[in-house]
């Protein structure tokens, strides 16, 4: 089954007309995107957007062989212009299946937002899922959706990463599923930043006019197993770390800071983090990281190593010069080695957050300088075990490795 993406953008296209934002200003050339529309085996057209006939011609195809046109957008979506010779567009009712003369079967997938999703099976048995903008499949939580794996999924990965998490939770998306981001809007800068964010979710984007073969998964990006996210205070490092896992189900968020009873400012910080995380994530408050790293399970998000180090230094008496010299330093080194050894052997996806404090002023106290130095050593050791390391500055992630 071949799929030609006549457009890959949001309904208003990219750049948006008369929009002065930075993303629209840089969405030029192959980064410019018309509203998403798909031509499947030159016989089925999903979403008839303005200029579809010209888009098909530019990609070396014709709409002359189209036998069925189906709409996925909400009923109040963009206006539909029907070129001469094309059948009138329609919509399959949720849960119903349509059999085409070409041998394709199209099943309408109910969504949790206005619009219709389509699961398409080719005559050869290849399976494709196409979701409308802003929507995720409904009913997956209660197991009513088949768990057969799709070969390709085209969805609003940036706007609704939880849709991908739901599909992964029921086995409908696996490591070889080619996930293509469509309905792309001006939420993420084009080019390298878009590729980086999508790759973290195991997805990718392609230019308008690209023809893809369903079932070919060589270009599916590998999700890094271990990622270290560094940054200063309020740099956006926790948001970056959370974003990397929001398209995966059953994430275990490991909070190393504890509850700090009576500290209202800390409680407010914890509440902000908790409200930002997907409802399906679980939380564990612990600094005992090695047992979590040495067992299989869903992805871990450890936030953060800076507080883990504080706890470790407390436990070895690092703040007392005499204790530090008389075995405290060796004990801390042993704790760090134990942690990095477990991280090296980890088989689950792990995202770790840590503060970057070595670029600021030199602390005025000996204990502050000791903590700064040990955190620098810890970050270096952990980074050495990670496939990807990023530094977040002013909310922008700079890739240091990966």
What does this structure look like?
The strands form 3 sheets. Strands 5-6-7-8-9-10-11 form a 7-stranded mixed β-sheet. A 7-stranded mixed β-sheet has the order 15-14-16-17-13-18-19, with helices on both faces. It has 402 residues and is α/β, with parallel strands linked by helices. Helix 8 crosses helix 10 (366-383). Helices cover 27% and strands 20% of the residues. It has 10 helices and 19 strands.
Labels describing this entry:
402 residues, alpha/beta, 7-stranded mixed β-sheet, 19 strands
Radius of gyration: 25 Å
Assembly classification: single chain
Number of strands: 19
Number of helical elements:
10
Low-confidence stretches: 142-146
- Helix-strand pattern, N to C? EHEEHEEEEEEHEHEEEHEHEHEHHEHEE
Question: What strand line-up does the widest sheet have?
Answer: 5-6-7-8-9-10-11
Principal-axes geometry comes out as elongated
| Proportion of strand residues | 15-25%
Largest beta-sheet characterization: 7 strands, mixed
Q: Termini, distance in Å?
A: 33 Å
Please sum up the structure shown.
This protein is an alpha/beta fold.
